[in-house]
Amino acid sequence: MNPKVIVDDQLLAKYRTLLDEEENAFNMAEHFFEEGNRRGFEEQLERLALASGKKNLLIEQLGGPKTLITLR
Q: pLDDT for 19-38, tens place per residue?
C-alpha cells in the first residue's frame, strides 16, 4: 500500500469516469425496474456490480479509503 497518494487531474478523471459508469447503470436499472422490464433490470444490476467493483479496486490500489492524500 502506498502511504501517500498524489491526486492529479488524470486520477480524478479516471475516478469520475468510474463514478459516471456506476451512476448510469443505477439509473438504467431504476428505469427498467419502473417499466417492469426484468431482463433489462438484471442486466443493469450486473453493470452496476462491475462498475462498483472497478471503482472499489481503484480505491484499494490507491491504498484504501484511509490513505493519506496529497492534493496537487
A: 999 999 999 999 999 999 99
